[in-house]
Structure formats: structure tokens, C-alpha cells
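Key idea: predict the complex, not the pieces.
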Amino acid sequence: MAEAPRRTSVLVVDDEIQIQRAMRTILETRGYEVVLAGTAQEALDRLMDGTPDLVVLDVMLPDMSGIELCERMRTWLAVPVLMLSVRSGECDKIDALESGADDYLTKPFSAGEFVARVKALLRRSRGMPTTPPVLKLDGLIIDLSARRVTRGGEEVSLTPIEFAILGLLVQHADRVVTWDQIRDVVWGAECIVDAATMRVHVSNLRKKIESHPAVPRHVLTEPGVGLRLTTR
Amino acid sequence: MRRRSRLAPILLVTAATVVFLPLRPYLDSRHWGWPYLLIVGTVAGTAGVGAAIIAAALSFLAWNFFFIPPYHTFIVADPQDLVQLLVYLVVATAVGLQTGRLRDREAVAHREERYAEALNRLSAGLVSGGSLAEIAALADAEVRYVLPGAVSGVWVSDSDGALRSASGTPGDEPPAAVRIALEQDVAYGLPPYPSSSEPGRLPRRAPGSAPGEVAIPLRSVRSNEGVLHVRIASSESLDDHEASFLVSIAHLLAAFLEARHLARIANTAVAAREAERLRAALVSSVSHELKTPLAAVTAAVTDLLEPDVGFDEPTVRARLAGAVMDLGRLDTAIADLLDASRLEARAWAPRKDVYEIGEIVGDVLSRLTEQQRERVRLAIPVGLPTVHVDFVQVSRAIAHVVDNALRYSEGEIEVGARVGGEDILECWVSDTGHGIAEEDREHVFEKFFRGAAGRASKSSTGLGLAITRDLLQANGGAISIEATESGGARMRISLPMVDACVDG
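Result:
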């Protein structure tokens, strides 16, 4: 008997029954296989049984903080981790990213937002083209392979640095991109570029691609962390 | 003081005798009483009754010894001279007593005047209100004024019973006399004087204290507020007047400390009343703002689950969309409560960085629904200077203002920004609603303020604008309200600018 193609599995680590139930419903109706764990220990046990494609991890667990669990998992686990928290303070976000999480989401969130984050993380980890070759946002069309950006039908001319930043944001669409990532990818890890310089380039990029040059609609600031290109 | 008054008559009479002796041949022996009487009068007028009597006795002997033959003996040859001498003694004593008494009375009056002056100044200082250290310094100055060379200090008992120096040097150890005076509730170093509450029972020196050390408990109706400690300069002990002066100072200080204590209690009472009012408002606001959306969601969702009615899909979706809106309202109410309590507990320090105002406004708009976003007109030019603020806090503040404008008006709202001063970036949100009455403009930033009837009917926690003001103040900003040309409300927010402009 031929084995059915394995479904994408998501490990959800959260001690709240209501959240577990909601996650299971949201993910299973979209064809994902859901494995639940209520404690950090249970999560580690489930990971022994098999490696999921994505881990959704609450920052508050009864036996260990999500941050600590994430750090521990990161020593041997490469799959993407989405951290959930109830607080929206920027320190928590920085802690989450530093512990090895790939993105974070603040409760309460809508199902659509949650699924968009999950999809963005899974696209990336599978080495698939992370976004359709051409990304359309309102009147903005970004064609990475052709290195062409048009707004309202008119060509937008970007400097190489601006294009590199935009490329990184598009590849990580709907995911947080840290200033460190931008520095490493655009300038190279060994380069010393201060935050102010990067901000100036981002500011210029926004002026060129956003419909309102001073108030960004798509390239949003994640305070203390970096940027996020939102497609929603 | 007293030693000097004993020395003065001896010196004066001796000096006068030395001056008189060469003149002995020119004046009849019986007339030397007159110059001596002058000396007695002088002594009485300057050194008082005691000195005058000593001077009278000494001059009586000196006249006899040096001027009445036979010279240099106390023998009186002529009975006539003896009468003269005895009359002199009586007259000189009488003159001395009379003049000395006048002089003493004048001295007392003068001293009382100084005491009254000192106490007056101190009480004026107490009334004008000052810190404890200032009052202690004032008391010290008056003690020095009356008792030159004295050093005084005020020790106050804290709520936990520890003694603290009022002059504010922490870690100072109180002298032993101070502690004993406070523990035993007894004044040390004072002469026993009748007006004291424990007549005749005052020990002169506290065990372990130095001579000339005075410690007087500062007694109020409530308790012992502390101790007045004085080290007097001379080794002699205080007389009654000086002692009663120090006791008066102690009374004044005790009254001051008690008044201070009562003022604190009164302040606490006012604060407690205000806290009580806020708590009551909070409870009613919380129960309303949390229960209402919960009730709405519960009703809508349980209705969908009712088996007897079959809902078509559009109806279900509409119901659920309504439920989501109510849930959003619930989330906002909870977030407001959390923010308000974090601000109140000062547990939300700003993490400032350099941002463009447009980034922050973009963040605010990204949280609005599509319909809400369509009502926002932007008036933010490119190239404004950056601001130095906590992104999350200022975003939250602007979100409250934008939410208010959307909620209390129907049409378009404008969100704008411009340079508002040398180092101020001004951001405004104006609506086309009915505006805010001038008398309400200050109050809308108070917690749970409900202004004009139109506003009161809309649901809100009543915390939003109070949170906004606190958040902006924490970031060096401010907020005010004005009317727009069309009668709507314009909220003007000022934020600290960073001079570095973003290029381009």
C-alpha cells in the first residue's frame, strides 16, 4: 500500500485548553496535522516522536518559559518557531527573536493573521520561493526576478540598496525582518552599518513605493526589532 | 554671669580705693562716704542687687581701713566716726538695693524682650511653613541668639520609632541624653522649675550625658514627636528663665511637628477619597465595558446554536462579524485597563528611539479596519524632522486620539503633522463632530470624565484620553484641544523633536 503523502504537521505548545482548541480547529480545517502539548516537557516528548514542520509556542508555560524552551529546542531543531504572547511590549519580542523564534504574534489575533504567519514561515522553511514571483499590493507590483517595481503602472526606480532591502522584505512577506538580518543580507555580516543609515534607506524606499510617501501602509516599523512587509 | 557680678564690686571698690588714697589729705575722713556711695550706685546700676550689697560692705570696710584714723586698722577712735560709718552702711545698702533692683528689673525686661523676640521669630517661621530641616535651623538660630555659643539640634521620632536628625544628615546617632529623654519622657538638664508638669522631680543630668547638655521631649497631644537637644557653652547650668525659654522653643517645635503630622493625615485622607472615587468609577466602568460586549457576544452566538431556528449563511456571517466587533471592544477595554494600571504603578518606562512621525501614524492606521482607514485624510509632509520617543507608547496615544475622532464624528478626520516650534513636532487629529465645550477641554483628560451628553452615550472605558496624556507626558510631549474652523475638535499633540533630519 502506497504511503499517503505526509501532511504538514504543526506542534502547538500552549497550556490553555481554549487556545489549543482554537488552534486545532483553525489549522485542521486548512489541512494541517496538529500535535498538541500543554507543557514544555510534553513538547520535548512530542519532538522525540517526530519532527514537525512548524512549532507554535506560547511564551508562558507552566513548567518553563517559552523563551527557555525555544533556546533549548534551537540546539538541535531547525524548524521555524512562531512565538505567541499576551503582552505587546517590545522587550518580549526581542527576547523571543533572540531565543531563536522566527516570528511572534500577540494574543488576541485573528485566524487570518495567524494563518498568514504560519504560511509565511512554512514557505520559507521548505526552500520554496517564499512568495509568488510577482507580489501585488494595491497599485504596487514587485517583480523580484525581473528586478522591476511599478506603482500605478509607472516604473519606480530604486537604488541597489533599496532594491535589496525590498527584496528581503518581499521574501519574508508578513514576517518580521530584523535590522541585523537587513544588515547581513544587504551589506554583508562583516560590514559596520549603523541603524540611522539603514533607516535613511528605508525611509527613501518608503517614499518611492508607498502610496503615501510619509505614512507607510506596507513597510511597517516593528519598534526595537526591525520591519515587516504586510500584504494584508 | 554670676561670677562676673561678684567680681565687679571687688574690682571697682579696690580701684576706687587706689584712686582715692593719694587724695586722703584733701578730704575730711568723715566725707569719704560720698565718693564710695557713688561707687556703690555704679555697681548697683551695672551689676545688680547682689553686687551692690557686696560693694556696700566692701566700701564700708575700705573707708574704715584706709580713711578713718587710725589708718590701716579697723579700729575707730572717734565715736562720731563710728556713727558716720554705720549710717553709711545703712544708706549704701539701701541705695544699692534700690538701684540694683531697678537695674535687675530692667535686665529682666530686656532679657524677656529678647526671648519674646526669638520665640516670635520662630513661630512666624513655623507658620510660614518650611521643611523640617529649615525649622530646625531656625530654632537653632534662636537658641544661639538667646544662649550665645549654644549648639542645638532637633531629633524626630520616625513612624518606626527610630530617631532621625531634623537637619537631615542620615546615619547620625542621637546623643544618649536624647534617647533617654524620649524613652523616659523626661526633660534633662533643666533646673527644677515650678511650671513643669513634674515639679521638683526633674533630674538635672541624664545618665551618660555631659554637663551643660539639655534634652527636652517635644510633647504633643498625640505623643512625643521628638527631642530638642541643646549643648550650652558655659559650664554653668541654666537659670529658670533660660530653661523656660528652651521649654517654649520645645513647645513650638512640638506644635509644628504635630501640625505637620496632621497635614499628612489630611493629605492621605484626600488621596484616599480620590482613590475611592476612582475605584468606584473603575468598577462601574469595568463592569459595563467588559460585561456589555461579553453579553452581546454570548447572546449572538448562543442564538446561532439554538436548534429551532435555521440560519442562512449570510445571517450567520453577519452575526459573527458583530461578535468579532464586540470582542474587539472587549480587547480594547482590557488593554486600556492594563495600560492605566501599568502607568499608575509607574511600571511602564519609555524606551525612546528616533522615529519618523509617519512610521508611528502608519502603525496606528495598520490597526484600523478598512472602513475606518477610508475616513482618515493624511496631512503629513515628507521630510519632517524625526522624534525621539517610545514608539509603542506614542502609537498607543495617537491611536486613542484617532479612535476618539472616528467615534465621535461621522465624516472624514484629518491626521496631520508639522514643525511646531524650535524643538517641537506637532501632530494633530481633527474631526468634523460637534466639538468639545470649552469648559470640558481640560477635564476630558481626567479618568472617567463624561462630558457632553453626546459623548456620554458612546461606550468607552473613560480611560483613553487619560492614558493618552500620561503616555505623552512620559515621552516629553503634551496634548491640548481646540475647536476647528467648522466647529469640530482638534487634538494637538506635541512631541520632542530630534534636530537630525532624515535626508531626502
